[in-house]
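Appendix C: a fully annotated inverse folding record. The material below is reproduced so that readers can follow the format used throughout the book. The structure is listed first as C-alpha cells, followed by the designed sequence.
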C-alpha cells in the first residue's frame, strides 16, 4: 500500500562540602522557577497530543487555526507551517498542501531556524508528487490504486467521488482520515454504503458519506 505517516541525556549533579571554621550558614541553592509556557507552546503541545493519539487530520485543523492568529511572530509562523507540512507529508496524506506550506516558508520565512529542514522536505515531497502523478497519468492503476494515489496527493474530493462511484472499500486508515476530514459521518439519517471504522482509541463506528443524507 502507498500509505507508509519518525535516550534522554542524563544529568550529573555535583555537590561540594566545605569544612569551614566560620559560623556562616551554607546558602541553599534555589532552583530557577520554570517559565510559564506561551500560548504558542501550549497550542503546539495540543497538536503533539493529537498526533500521538492518531488524530493527524484534527491536528492539521488545529495548526490551520493557529496559523490564523495575528499575534504570532515570524519564527512561530514558520514552525507552525513546518509542523503542518510534515503532517500533510506524512499521515495527513496531502502532498499538495505540504508543498504549499513549504513553499510559503521558503518565500516568507527564509531566515527562520527551520528553513533548511523545510527546503529538504520540499525536495522529498516534490519528488514523490511527481512520481505519483506519473503513475496516475502514464500508468494503468486499478480503481483502488487510483483512489490511494489521489488521496495521497491531497485530492480528497476526487478520491471520495471515485470511492463512491466504484463501490470501493479502502483500508481503515483511509476511512479514518475521511471521517476526520468530514467526508464520512455517522448518523441514522444518512444513506448510501456503510463503512466500518475503528478509531485510534478502539471506538467502532458505522459511517456513511455525509452528503448523501442531505
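Designed amino acids, in order:
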Amino acid at each position: 500500500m502507498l500509505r507508509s505517516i519518525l535516550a534522554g541525556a542524563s544529568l550529573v549533579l555535583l555537590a561540594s562540602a566545605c569544612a569551614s571554621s566560620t559560623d556562616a550558614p551554607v546558602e541553599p541553592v534555589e532552583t530557577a522557577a520554570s517559565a510559564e509556557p506561551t500560548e504558542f507552546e501550549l497550542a503546539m503541545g495540543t497538536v503533539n497530543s493529537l498526533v500521538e493519539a492518531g488524530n493527524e487530520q484534527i491536528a492539521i485543523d488545529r495548526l490551520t487555526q493557529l496559523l490564523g492568529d495575528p499575534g504570532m511572530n515570524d519564527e512561530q509562523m514558520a514552525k507552525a507551517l513546518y509542523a503542518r507540512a510534515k503532517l500533510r507529508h506524512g499521515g495527513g496524506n496531502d502532498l499538495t498542501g505540504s508543498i504549499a506550506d513549504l513553499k510559503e516558508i521558503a518565500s516568507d520565512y527564509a531566515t527562520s531556524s527551520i528553513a533548511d529542514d523545510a527546503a529538504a522536505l520540499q525536495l522529498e515531497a516534490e519528488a514523490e508528487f511527481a512520481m505519483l502523478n506519473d503513475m496516475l497519468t502514464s500508468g494503468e492503476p486499478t480503481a483502488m490504486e487510483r483512489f490511494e494515489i489521489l488521496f495521497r496527493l491531497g485530492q480528497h474530493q476526487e478520491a471520495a467521488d471515485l470511492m463512491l462511484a466504484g463501490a470501493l472499500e479502502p483500508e481503515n486508515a483511509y476511512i479514518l482520515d475521511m471521517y476526520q476530514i468530514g467526508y464520512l459521518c455517522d448518523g441514522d439519517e444518512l444513506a448510501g454504503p456503510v463503512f466500518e471504522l475503528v478509531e485510534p482509541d478502539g471506538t467502532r463506528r458505522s459511517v456513511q458519506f455525509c452528503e448523501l443524507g442531505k
